[in-house]
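note to self: dont lose this again. the chain is below, predicted strucutre after it. 97 aa total, dont forget to put it in the shared folder this time
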Amino acid sequence: MRAFRPLIAAVALFVCASTAQAQVVDLSKTTCKEFVESGKDGIMIIWSWLYGYYSDQNADPIIDFGKLVQQGQKLADFCKANPTADVITGAKPIYGK
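---
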């Protein structure tokens, strides 16, 4: 978990510094269409957050960027095919919870 603290801090700084439309994002209510349309930065932040959220709490502090992108691409493909589904519905089978 300590390995993800810098990532969380970076995301928090990015969100605070950007002109984000929302300060709180509920991914269980965010549609796949909204996710796909969030832009490159928004997509990468969500991919990274999901990767950390679904990681084993006792895992080594390693980020596998290949795996992060592979899982993220699967989520993007799901979302393109299911624009009205919520992001978490698509993420659960991909990220393993």
